[in-house]
Design goal:
This protein has about 475 residues and is an alpha/beta fold. Helices cover about 45% and strands about 10% of the residues. It has 17 helices and 9 strands. The chain has a 9-stranded mixed β-sheet with strand order 3-2-1-4-5-7-6-8-9. β2, α12 and β3 form a beta-alpha-beta unit. α4 crosses α7 and α6 packs antiparallel against α12. The two termini are about 40 Å apart.
Length: about 475
């Protein structure tokens, strides 16, 4: 658990840094240092591979900015060279005045936008160093330098713990909560949608890129050739994120997971004119948890046929427009979408142009600290909805921060969804039976309501009897002590 103890130690140092005040700052500052160390190990691997193949490898990072030169120079024994290793003001000045400005310029010097060099430039254009103490920075660098990313096990452990840091960032505040969807839920959604190599996967509200990273993990198992691997690297995953910090985290998260130059761009998806979407722009699979309750400029509303000020409802229209015919989607959305009068026209539109075949009803507590109930909509574009299969998730316990949703909780849903069988927790709705309100609310007809027929007096008497039993047990315990 080297990574876990290192991450915790770094957080401890950052808590004493004036420029960092919360989990969002901690992950931002830890990320750029991890990223540079990861790049150094990656380039070392590529250089060694080129040597074995008797080829030359041209490093992306210039020598003076390589990790082994400025961050962790070593002596002849492989230990940190304390004479060459900068610290204090010299280190802070180097990072602020040389390292960041030079890496930022990569965005302008890269040959193409789909290269790792360009992504490095984008990341350091968005970032700034908040570790003002060069002494704190030296401590953190020394800890990061002890980490290695060469083996598959190293990379796996690092990505798991990095995801945990993203989760804590997501729980750090209302804005942070927009960035994190529980990974067991994402993995279960992906199993149902089942993206294949050769298909494009898109998340236009990608946050920390959880859906895209998990889709990459899922689709890696399908690789049978170099061509398959190249497709996953270059022309499969596409994301867009409006806000700076999650955009940075998303890009680095995908690189850490193994996608060298992620097709993630920073921009406001909702500002795009849907009337200009062409067939070449459309995607095979859309996986997303769009933000809700946000605000947009008035001119943004004009991009949508169904007028609404709710961002999640605007995103829903974007999803439908951006799917290819036959394309599939798994979308997390507030459960009020199913019955809200403001969404009536959108529900009808969805069911007219898509087959909304499955609705997964999630219990409270899935999204820690969010205090909202959500559903997952699974639909295929191109044929109208006739029947909707519902599944009401009942994990048998209250979910929360210390009792989180896990994949076993969703196993029954995944198994039943294949045949859309009825059970205590699942049923089918005939859309033709709906009235003009098109209410798709979750109303489980198979759930047996337990009616308490006791009178108030009987309830009070039973409470008193239980209290008497408890007191008797306590007296017995006291006599034994």
């Amino acid at each position: 658990m080297q990574y876990e103890s290192t991450f915790n130690a770094i957080d401890g140092i950052l808590r004493n840094e004036a420029g960092c005040s919360n989990e969002l700052d901690y992950i931002e500052q830890t990320s750029w240092l991890l990223f540079l160390k990861y790049l150094d190990d990656l380039e070392n691997d590529l250089e060694m591979k080129a040597e074995l193949e008797e080829e030359e490898y041209a490093r992306i990072i210039p020598q003076e900015l390589q990790w082994s030169v400025w961050a962790a120079p070593k002596d002849e024994n492989g230990e940190l060279d304390v004479v060459k290793a900068m610290t204090g003001d010299a280190l802070a000045d180097f990072v602020d005045q040389k390292l960041f400005p030079t890496l930022k310029e990569f965005k302008n010097t890269a040959k193409a936008s789909n290269t790792l060099e360009y992504k490095i430039g984008e990341i350091f254009t968005e970032l700034r160093n908040k570790i003002h103490s060069g002494y704190n920075l030296r401590e953190i660098i020394n800890k990061v330098d002890a980490l290695h990313f060469q083996s598959a096990d190293d990379k796996h452990e690092m990505t798991v713990l990095y995801e945990d840091k993203i989760k804590r960032m997501g729980n750090a505040g209302r804005n942070g909560g927009e960035y994190y969807t529980p990974r067991p839920l994402i993995r279960s959604i992906i199993k149902v949608v089942d993206p294949k190599i050769g298909e494009t996967v898109y998340d236009p509200a990608c946050g920390s890129a959880g859906f895209l990273c998990e889709a990459f993990n899922y689709m890696q198992e399908q690789i049978k050739s170099t061509a398959d691997s190249d497709k996953l690297q270059q022309s499969t995953y596409y994301g867009k994120e409006k806000k700076g910090l999650p955009y940075i985290i998303a890009t680095m998260n995908m690189i850490f997971h193994g996608v060298a130059a992620p097709n993630i761009v920073r921009g406001n998806t909702l500002a795009e004119n849907l009337s200009q979407v062409q067939e070449k722009d459309r995607k095979d699979v859309i996986l997303a948890n769009p933000p809700f309750g946000g605000s947009e400029r008035s001119e943004v509303y004009q991009n949508f046929d169904i007028q609404t000020s709710e961002t999640a409802y605007m995103f829903m229209q974007h999803f439908i427009k951006m799917l290819k015919t036959g394309g599939r989607a798994g979308i997390v959305i507030k459960n009020t979408f199913l019955s809200n009068g403001d969404a009536t026209a959108l529900r009808k539109y969805l069911c007219e142009f898509c087959n909304l075949h499955t609705i997964l009803d999630l219990p409270s507590g899935v999204f820690t600290g969010a205090g909202v109930k959500t559903v997952v909509l699974f639909f295929t574009k191109g044929t109208p909805t006739k029947n909707i299969w519902y599944y009401q998730l009942n994990p048998g316990r209250n979910l929360g921060k210390t009792n989180a949703l896990n994949e076993q909780d969703l196993a029954d849903f995944i198994a039943l969804q294949k045949t859309k069988a009825d059970s205590e927790n699942s049923w089918t709705l005939d859309v033709s039976t709906l009235d003009e309100n098109f209410d798709l609310s979750v109303k489980n007809p198979n759930k047996v309501e337990v009616v308490d027929n006791r009178t108030p007096r009987e309830i009070a008497e039973q409470i008193m009897a239980l209290n008497a039993e408890s007191n008797e047990l306590l007296n017995e315990i006291l006599e034994m002590l």
